[in-house]
Every structure is written in structure tokens, then in C-alpha cells.
Write a structure and sequence with these properties.
Layout: H1 14-22, H2 26-45, H3 51-68, H4 79-95, H5 117-135, H6 139-150, H7 155-162, H8 166-187
Length: 194
């Protein structure tokens, strides 16, 4: 089936794009790729060692998704959750046979708009401490923190992606935040002792 040139891919809802992609519309899959590339890349990047590994795994995930889109059935599972599950499996395959480690590099490298160089240096130190703290969390805790606070996903979305119920995700998040606070206190003794 060829796509109708009068229909803007960007104006089409995701379910329609998925259905068109399932029928072989490459432009529809391209639009899905554009919508989800950054989130899937970030999710993978926070879990692997380098940018090049993240780029390779992201490419692999979207290639697999393109090859498998004809077999995708929505059945209440959003397309994004299907992609995250593929990314999760690609990461597991990547680390299979080796001790899984998850360095968080540049996780919170955001433009802060500060003019004072001393403030920028302090912010850099703060982000580095946060990266170190996140790297000390369990794999599940890292995933939940990244998906909830970096990608902005809801508890329900994270639960679907990880194959857990919402209550379990909330518990993991709660424990992760407490663990982060403990680690940050050890990295910054004397701060927040009030």
C-alpha cells in the first residue's frame, strides 16, 4: 500500500501511523522513528558504556522494529512500550556473558543558562555526583529513574515497558530515591544536616 501524498504523516495519530507502517508504508515508519528515536537512544545510552555502543544498539532496535512491524499487534500495548521492550532486550543481549554495568554519563547535561562560570562549574560537579549516585543503584532502579525523571514517562508506561505492575514501579522509584539521597549524603558529608 502506498501512502497518500495528501495526508501529512505528522498530522496522523500514532495508531494510524503504526497501522500504515504494518502495511509497508516506509514514510509512516519513518515518522514513528522520528517520534521515538531520542527517547530510545537516551534509554540505551544511560545503560551502556559509550555513545557509539548506544548508537549501534539504537540502530539495531529500530532495524528489528522495522523488520517486525508487520507482526506487531497493539492489544493495549503502546508502540513506545514495544520499542522500549526491544531496547531492554537489546541491552540484555549486549551485556550477556559479562558483568552488567551501567555508567550514567551526561545524564543530566542540560543547558542551565547561567552566565557565571563558577556557577557552571558547580553545576557540573553536582551533575557528576548525581551520575555517580545513579550508577550505584540497581539496574531496575536506574531504569525507573531514567524513564520517570529523564524521559518523563508515567508509572503506567514504565510498568508496561518493564513488565511490572504500577505498584512495583512505585516501590522501586521510592527505594531508588531514598538510595540516591543516602549516596548523595555520603558524597557530600555535612550538607543538609539540619
Amino acid at each position: 500500500m502506498e501512502s497518500d501524498p495528501r495526508v501529512s504523516v505528522r498530522d496522523t495519530g500514532e495508531d494510524t501511523l503504526v497501522e500504515r507502517a504494518r502495511r509497508g508504508d516506509a514514510a509512516a515508519f519513518g515518522s514513528l522513528y522520528e517520534r521515538h528515536l531520542d527517547r530510545i537512544y537516551r534509554y540505551i545510552y544511560y545503560r551502556v558504556r559509550t555513545e557509539s555502543e548506544a548508537e549501534d544498539l539504537t540502530e539495531h532496535v529500530f532495524l528489528r522494529a522495522y523488520e517486525a512491524i508487520g507482526r506487531y499487534e497493539q492489544r493495549g500495548l503502546p508502540f513506545a512500550a514495544w520499542l522500549y521492550r526491544m531496547a531492554h532486550n537489546a541491552i540484555i543481549d549486549h551485556y550477556r556473558g559479562s558483568r552488567p554495568t551501567t555508567p550514567i554519563e551526561d545524564a543530566f547535561d542540560l543547558e542551565d543558562g547561567r552566565q557565571n562560570p563558577l556557577d557552571a562549574v558547580q553545576a557540573s560537579f553536582d551533575r557528576e555526583e548525581l551520575r555517580v549516585a545513579i550508577a550505584r543503584l540497581t539496574s531496575d532502579q536506574q531504569q525507573v529513574i531514567v524513564m520517570r525523571f529523564v524521559d518523563g514517562l508515567s508509572h503506567a508506561e514504565v510498568a508496561e515497558i518493564l513488565g511490572k505492575n504500577e505498584g512495583a514501579v512505585r516501590v522501586i522509584q521510592h527505594r531508588a530515591l531514598h538510595a540516591l539521597a543516602r549516596v548523595m549524603r555520603t558524597l557530600n558529608p555535612g550538607v543538609d544536616d539540619a
